[in-house]
Amino acid sequence: MQKGNIHSVESMGLVDGPGIRTVLFFQGCKLRCQYCHNPDTWSMSGGKEMEVDQIIKMLKRYQPYYGETGGITCSGGEPLMQIEFLTELFRTCKEENISTCLDTAGYGNGDYEELLAYTDLVILDIKHYLAGGYNAITGGRFSVPESFLEAVKKRKIPLWIRHVVVPNLTDSEEHIRGLGEYIRTIPNVEKVELLPYHTLGVDKHKVMDLSYPLKDTLPMCKEKTRQLQKMILDIVSLQPRKD
């Protein structure tokens, strides 16, 4: 029986996929995004060790609330860092008729084929659509999430796209147009959501004695975010959704 290292659990999540969902936040992430607000999830240690059966037992208690659209969402950190455990968890969820959603930046390793066979929805956090910009924001290699995205496209899994809009970093109209054109090339995209940058990560970095790269950056203007949201939906030809 596989064991996973879980940072925390949200029993009744309403924004991490359709319907009411139980959200598992995994430990472990290789990226070091400039605006990360959960640096306490970076390490593979520090969370709570949980077995698949233990999680399934918890999910079945909440299952009556899921209705036709709810289920489990695995987020992080980066859940792909624990892909064997995640695969066994999703496989068992499907046996129990529990909907599975993977909330990821696509930065894992190994073969995604078996995992994606048990995945109903992918929420993909696109950090940047160009290799140079991606590396500057995350410290990672753009080819890694590109490889994951190709696997998702191959299996034709429904996709929700998220992107953090940061002042003076990813908030220009030129950037949003480029991102929109990039998303237009991805099939099976059902939703695109721009998330305004916030400063909730500043205090966590202080507590952990970590340098925060954007310490002088103010929160993103919500009105401008709404304007950019409309722009990108026009580009990708999607209508706003109510979930």
Description:
This protein is α/β, with parallel strands linked by helices and 243 residues long. The protein is 36% helix and 21% strand. The protein contains eight helices and eight strands; from the N terminus they run E-E-E-H-E-H-E-H-E-H-H-E-H-E-H-H. An eight-stranded mixed β-sheet has the order 3-1-2-4-5-6-7-8. Helix 1 crosses helix 2 and helix 6 runs parallel beside helix 8 (222-236). It is globular, with a radius of gyration of 17 Å. The mean pLDDT is 94.
Task: Lay out the secondary structure.
Elements: E1 3-13, E2 21-26, E3 48-51, H1 52-66, E4 71-75, H2 83-95, E5 99-104, H3 113-117, E6 121-125, H4 131-138, H5 143-155, E7 159-165, H6 173-184, E8 189-196, H7 201-207, H8 222-236
Parallel strand pairs: 2-4, 4-5, 5-6, 6-7, 7-8
Antiparallel strand pairs: 1-2, 1-3
First-residue to last-residue Cα separation: 35 Å
Q: Major sheet: size, sense and barrel closure?
A: 8 strands, mixed
- Give the strand order of the largest sheet, numbering strands 1, 2, ... along the chain: 3-1-2-4-5-6-7-8
Please state the average pLDDT score: 94
Instruction: Estimate the strand proportion.
Output: 15-25%
Order of helices and strands: EEEHEHEHEHHEHEHH
Shape, principal axes of CA atoms = globular
Tell me the number of helical segments per DSSP (H or I, 4 or more residues long): 8
